[in-house]
Write a structure and sequence with these properties.
alpha/beta, DNA-binding
Chain lengths: 335, 335
DNA sequence: TAGGAGTGTGCCGAAATGGGAAGAGCTATG
DNA sequence: CATAGCTCTTCCCATTTCGGCACACTCCTA
């Protein structure tokens, strides 16, 4: 046999009786996904058997299962923690005064990291968010990949506020969708900054900031219950270069000015100060300093390449919650 | 390929570099399980790769993974619900006034059912139990298999009270361990009835009931926050016959007296009344009627064979929470 | 009517599985 | 103290099952 799920030793014959139990009778459209996932993960049936039961073929079942894993319909969690990670969490808590620290083991392949930190974030948010909370959200791969891990729920007065403008160029996977998609999961109202993150120049930024809708959103952002932010670096595959938000020259110029990364698209130096640079004057986003009004700031970011930026962001934001990976945690713990 | 986990399209070579990331460095004893589970489910490595990394062989990795799934170290959940189940939940809520109803699809193989209902129960309890709560627990396969799904937590003043005596014959899998194992998960204090469920006769039962320790436990059971019970039937593979708690003659006699099942080892008729029978006078357990003092009674049980018993138990206990399967739910909904 | 998305089929190599056999470590017993 | 019995581990093998891929087909839309 070749399946990851346990199958008890007995081998009841499929007996080709496609008679369905009342329970798993066909329902509406995407019940199919639930049903297939259920049969596979809960009842440990093979994909072939499932194909028989739902009247389809393996390929489709396979596709559905892949999608189910991707969109969070099935969630796989390792509940126990590595002792080293637990140690690091304790160290960081006492050294920096964090209320909560979550340290995940750094994966061997760095591309997995945003996903892993993201799902940890999602799980944390799911149990942290209560009725009528207002939640401010940033951006980024880390945050985006946390969405599937946010548990779907009934409306309960939660509101989600996007802390930054969006992308103008709407790419297929728009990271600034994050707020909207998170709001969808939470059945929350969603307030978005209906403008690009980077205004053409400081003047138009000023104009937009005073715009009615935008001003309201930014105002809400000043009295948040939770603020979730990530940090960015200036590496070649940062969002800025990947989405063409900034030119190569601008990046260089920022580096010269001492920038080592960004928080909410505001570029900061290694001491956690927002640097003085023209690009920073064009940003349509809540200023990191304004997050002080939030009752709980959550910083979720990891990876060796972001170490300095994370260090700086901690100084700047003084978050209550930190979610990161063990490599970063090890280094920060000995600072 | 033959694995249940998605593997992204790229195939980075294993490169035989057994160099470990700092993060996943070796730790204490059962870190191994965590580590293996992590590598498998989070980093989508093959069992071979993992064997290399942790310095072992496939077989062991395989076994560790199986154990990890069994003991809840890795949890796989299907988060979406079948629409039919949601409908049934709503119907039952309005018809019987339950506060919460959870209906799971009936599996094709009935042996899976206790496990499925159990994990749903475990998940519910995990999010329901708060600091300093006192929780009364019954017994049974359903309840036992819920343990892995109870999230491990830090001590917070929770106390667990066993609502029944134990088995004298200690078999390998003692279902009356349930309370103790649940307490372990919850880092809770555990109060057990240190006596067999069935006393030899009514007189010795009386004597035991007045015993200091036992009386205290039974007293605690009268002021519970949560009471979790299941129901039993009189089928040939009920606990009573399987563990030889009652003789065949006694079962027959109980049936003649109108018994259709039991709640906390008290036999009841189809109207939900505890019947008048010698066996019921020998039970060392909290009386179902005494559960009225609990702030929330949770009834978790399912399966066609238990339908009548569940009906009766609902009348008797009037629980606030019902966890069952769709076959039972369908029937109860049209009562 | 042409394109495109979604579906059904078949095939292949890689992975996973459950035993079975051989070896190591431990216990109980003479 | 030695040895037979037992369990647990490790190693190996035959089968099943997976996941991806290529391709033909259908149904819907532009």
């Amino acid at each position: 046999m070749g399946r990851a799920m346990t199958k008890s030793t007995n081998d009841r014959e499929p007996t080709s009786e496609s008679v369905e139990t009342v329970s798993i009778g066909s329902g509406t459209a995407d019940d199919l996904k639930t049903r297939v996932s259920w049969l596979y993960y809960m009842e440990s049936k093979t994909q072939d058997e499932i194909a028989q039961i739902v009247g389809s073929n393996r390929s489709k079942v396979l596709r559905i299962l892949a999608q189910a894993r991707a969109d969070g319909t099935v969630q796989i969690r390792v509940t126990s923690r590595l002792s080293r990670c637990v140690e690091l969490e304790a160290e960081l808590k006492s050294r920096y005064g964090f209320e909560t620290v979550i340290v995940v083991p750094t994966p061997q392949d760095p591309v997995d990291l945003p996903g892993i930190i993201g799902s940890e974030l999602g799980a944390y948010l799911s149990q942290r968010i209560g009725p009528d909370m207002s939640i401010g959200l940033g951006w980024g791969r880390t945050l985006t990949s946390g969405i599937p891990a946010i548990e779907q729920r009934q409306p309960s007065g939660v509101s989600v506020i996007s802390l930054l403008g969006g992308l103008t160029k709407v790419s297929r996977v728009n990271p600034s969708d994050f707020a909207w998609r998170a709001a969808d999961r939470l059945a929350a109202e969603c307030y978005m900054v209906a403008a690009p993150v980077f205004a053409p120049d400081a003047a138009s930024r000023e104009a937009l900031m005073n715009h009615h809708g935008i001003a309201e959103v930014l105002d809400r952002a000043r009295r948040l219950d939770l603020a979730v932010v990530s940090v960015g670096d200036l590496s070649p595959d940062s969002i800025f270069t990947r989405y063409g938000l900034l030119t190569h020259e601008e990046i260089i110029s920022l580096e010269r000015a001492g920038a080592i990364g960004d928080v909410l698209c505001r570029f900061i130096d290694s001491e956690g100060n927002v640097i003085d640079h023209p690009v920073n004057d064009r940003v349509l986003a809540v200023h990191p300093a304004d997050l002080g009004g939030a009752r709980e700031v959550i910083l979720a970011s990891g990876g060796w390449s972001k170490l300095t930026a994370i260090r700086a962001a901690i100084k700047l934001l003084e978050p209550k919650v930190l979610i990161t990976d063990s490599v970063v945690a090890e280094r920060i713990a000995v600072d």
